[in-house]
Amino acid sequence: MLLKLSMAKTLERYHKSSYGLIESQQSLDDERSSYLECLKLKSRVEVLQQSQRHLQGEDLGKFGVRELDQLECVLDASLNRIRSKQTQHMFEQLSGLQRKEKDLMDINRALRKKLAARPQVFFEPLAANNSSHIRYNSQVAQNNAEGFSQNVNAILPAWMH
């Protein structure tokens, strides 16, 4: 049993030394590739920052006529894309507003028809007194108002309540 235990320890040490070297070699390779990738990304960031400065009109002193013309073309193309997207967005908003306007006009038309179909008597003259005073009939007005609000709720979309 003691022999098995010492044999297991020996094998364990052998595996650590043999495979440990392989693992350490792989970690060194990974570290090198990560470092190279970091350098590439760092240089890419510098190039992009320089390009951004050029597009903002900074550091243009060393540019020749050809480079300035190319930069102008890039800026014109970018500006055209921006204007195109802005125009498209405005047309989409306009068409949405036109749809809402049409819907509201239809609702308004339906409400006017319903209002025209209702009797317009809310007041009645006093029977006991022939003076020009008019008594308000609250029951008729209340019934008309309740019916009108129910009809409006049936016609109007939920966002208008």
Beta-strand percent range? under 5%
How far apart the termini lie comes to 89 Å
Mean pLDDT: 79
SSE succession: HHEEH
Helix content: over 70%
Largest sheet: 2 strands, antiparallel
* Number of β-strand runs: 2
Structural class of the secondary elements? mainly alpha
GO molecular function, one term: DNA-binding transcription factor activity
GO cellular component, one term: nucleus
Protein name: K-box domain-containing protein
Write up this protein.
There is one protein chain. The model is unreliable at about 130-140 (pLDDT under 50). The chain has a two-stranded antiparallel sheet with strand order 1-2. By secondary structure, the chain is mainly α. It has helices at about 1-55, 65-115, 140-155; strands spanning about 125, 135.
Question: What's a concise summary of this model?
Answer:
This protein is mainly alpha-helical. It is built from three helices and two strands; from the N terminus they run ααββα.
List the helices and strands and how they pair.
Elements: H1 2-55, H2 65-117, E1 123-125, E2 134-136, H3 138-155
Antiparallel strand pairs: 1-2
Question: What structural keywords apply?
Answer:
mainly alpha, K-box domain-containing protein, 161 residues, 78% helix, elongated, DNA-binding transcription factor activity, 3 helices
